[in-house]
Each structure stands twice: as structure tokens, then as C-alpha cells.
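Hmm, how's this folded?
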Amino acid sequence: VFVQGESSAAGFPYGLGASLAGVLDQRLERAFPSREIEVISTAMAAVNSFALLDFADEIIAQQPDAIIVYVGHNEFLGILGVGSSMRLAATPGITRAFLAARDWRLFQVMSQVYARLRPAAAVAPATTGESLMARVAGERSIALQSDLYRRGLRQFESNLGRLLEKYRRAGVPVLVGTLASNERDQSPLAILAGVESDAAGAARTAYHAAQDADEAGNYPVAREGYAWARDLDPLRFRAPADFNSIVAQAAEAKGARLVDVHGVFVAASPNGLVGESLLLEHVHPNLDGYFLLADAFFSALIANGLPGEPEVNVTTAEARRAMPVSDIDRFLGDYKVLRIKAGWPFSDGRIPVTLPAPASEAERLAQELYHERISWPEAHDRLRRHYQAQGDRVGYAHVTAILADAFPFTGSLQFETAAALIELGRPRDAVRYSRRGIELEPRNVNQWLVHAHGLLLSERERDGRAALEQALALEPGNR
């Protein structure tokens, strides 16, 4: 299964564990413990539909069983967007032609010759601490229905249609989602950034009117008002409602499965007003929001029969508790959001980020990681050892499993995870890791023993006996 999208598909600011790929990988492997299911993410920050289309042929070459697409927020101001400072050409067609030609050897040689002959252009240095949002935003006021706005719609419609058509011709099932963003608790970004224009003023007026309706308890009117304020916001870091219409139309035209992510977020939000209960700032979900996003696609995969009927019924509540995100990841994500909100467009100047005094070992390690005094693997290894010393078996197993998934070719981590899960009474989940362990270290008796233990406790007696026979073949005298 391949996942395509932007930072909100990549799990920012928590990392892979919160991403569509991270959550789906765990859910699919727990639901289908006897099968090896791989979820691969190509999602990354600041890209848009051009990048997804550019990856399509290489993804098709891997013969995927399904593709998940969640994209649209960066279409105006992401790299190659119509309002980006990092765009190549005025039309989508010319940009696509450039992206296609750059792989040609002749084009590469010509580019090198041109670069040697042409004087180097002066490049303005990035302002210290300038965010990626600030660097990519070229046009900071794109009014609704303006020429540039319509060019953005055409770009998205054209690229998404071509992308889905490629997959349709290749016979690959695609699930494409509508977009959710913070409407209730995110005032127009243009106002926060100090944009002075009629468009920004209209967005402010609409947002205040929606707040009035919200306070009066008129939630349907408030919902429409907040969405209208988002659409009027000329600083276009959130996808407008027009994009969800384009997604729905493209899915129907190209035979893709539509996943109504926006509708799921509305249904899960208090009074149907999507805001800070599920999102951190303008578009990135919090942990509950990321689980909801992945759950929408998981449910759609199952409903469409793509992986088949689940072997094990893992409840939604259980899957949420087991989400592969550590306390270190959670605290680090909070610190990254503090840093983002201290700069443009959320603030008109740089506000120093001050971290709170750490109240736990996880928070202390997260701050060490934030200041780049420790690596991610080292921080998590220290945390699991801390849990082990404290007798916290659940915490130890959770973090060890996160490390085992991050480093699937390290046999010792697979063994330790399997053993820890068996101790917690989760043998079916343990087999996922013990199976990796015996594949990595087929002559390690302990790998076969923990694998047999997990199989027998999962009531797979024949497989368990076969694993014990392997252990005896390696070490006949093993009592």
C-alpha cells in the first residue's frame, strides 16, 4: 500500500508513527497477523499534486495493491504551486513537461552546460529562523475567484485527474480523501500575517460573523460561516471547499474510491465545528485527528474488500491506545508547533520559544531531542530502559515495538518486542515480531522459542509445534 500526500499525510509534527502510513501499517498487520502487509509513505512537507504525479510511474512499477491519496492544502503555495516562490512555469502543462524532461540524459547535459555559461544569479539569503511556510509563499494574497485562484483550481484538477487516470489504466485501486482543516479555531491567516487588502477584510468579517452564530448556538450557520471565512482567506495555506468538489468529481470520473475525510472530521467535532479538538493549527491534526484520518482510510480499505476480511477484530479504542507514537514523539510535536506559531504567518515577528521545565523522563528526553543533543533512536532506547527499570511493562513494550518497527532488520528488537507482548497477554501481536525475528536470525534458538510461544498461546498448535521442531533441530539438547 502506497500513501501519497503532503505534511498532513506524513504525520507532522509527530513523525511516522502518527502518519497515515504508520497508523495503517500497524492496524493492517494487527488485523491480518498471518500476512505481511507493507505500507510505504511518499508523503512530505511543502509538496503538492505535481510531486504526486511525478512519483506515479515509479509507484506503479512496484505493483502496489492499493494507493491512498490525501492532498490539496499546498496547491497554491507549496513547491511548484501557482502562488509559490518556488514555481517553474505559468501553466501546469509546462511544469509537467519540465519534470518529465529532467530525467532525460540530454536534458541533464544541456542544463549543466547552461549553468556553466550563465552567470550565477544572486540569491537572497533566508532570514534567520524563517519557516518553510514563509520561504515558499510568494503570493501572499490570492483573492477568491481571482485569476490566480482559478489557475490553482485548474492546476489541481488537471494534476489530480492525470494521477488517478494513470492508476486506473494500471488497474490499481485508489482511495482519495476529501480535505479537513481547522475552521472554527483558526482565524484567517492573512489577518494574523498583517495582510491589508479587501480580501483579508472580507475574511475577517465572515469569521467574526461565524463566531457570533457559534456563540448564539446557531451551529449550522456557524459551520457555513467558518468554512466561508476559510475560503475567503487570501493567504492560501488551507484548501478551499472547491477542492473537495474537485476530489469528488475526479474520483467519480476515474473510478477511485472517495473517502469523505472532511465529513468524518465534522461528525467527530463538537457541534460539527472542526477545530482545535482535532487539529493543532491550520491543517495538521493532533493525535486524535491523525488516528481519525487513518481510521477513515482503514475503514474504506476494509469496506472495499481490498485486504479481505480481517482475521482479528481489533476494536477502534484498542487501536487508538496502541497508536505507534511515544510520549517523546508527543512532546516533541508540541515543541515543533510552539516554534511554528512563534513565526510567520501566525505572528508578525519572531517570539522566543521557551520550553516548560520537564515533568517526566519522556519530556526531558524530548527536550534533549528538540535541541539536537541526542538522536531519535537513542532517546527511545533510553525511554524504554527507564520504563523497564520502573516496572512499567506497558510502556516498555510500547516503545520497544516502536523501535522494532522503525528498525525492522534488527533481530534483537523483534525478539524483545515479541517477548514483552507475550508477557502482556498479546500473543497474536507478538507473532508479528517473532516472525520477523526468525526470518532475520533463522539459526537463533531463542527466536524460534519466542515464536513458538506466541503461536501456541494464539491457539496455532500445529505451527507452534513446527517452530519447536526447528528449535530442537538447532539445539537437540535444549530442555
Notes: Strands lie at 2-5, 40-41, 67-70, 174-177, 257-259. The mean pLDDT is 92.
